[in-house]
Amino acid sequence: MRMPVPLFNSIALLALLSGPAHAQEPAAVQDGRLVDAQGMTLYTYGKDSEGQSNCTEQCADIWPPLIAEEGAQPSGKWSLVTRPDGTVQWAYDGKPLYTYAKDKQPGDTTGDTLMGVWHVAKP
Known about the structure:
- This protein is about 20% helix and about 20% strand.
- The chain has about 120 residues and is α+β, with helices and mostly antiparallel strands.
- It has one domain.
- A three-stranded antiparallel β-sheet has the order 4-5-6, with no helix packed on it. A two-stranded antiparallel ribbon has the order 1-2.
- The chain is globular.
């Protein structure tokens, strides 16, 4: 079936315009958990308040925050949290997200339930 050229051009333009929205997704779902662009498991910290990170300095060395790129925009359950040092971190459902330095490869979840306050982030 042949589409009229103006209709085809409109569809192509819509596809191009909608592309960046998907590229800005800060994480994906894999095996029921949130993972970063490298497939590393994301975690939440039980001592964080909604929309506020309490993992700083040495804590952030062990639990690196999922830093947002400049110009990132919140959408749906995804929000942005300004950290005490001024960097901006992604949060899901109000909970700031982190990776764990001791997870060595995609799929590792060695930080889950550590100290009773770290948990795998789930959608």
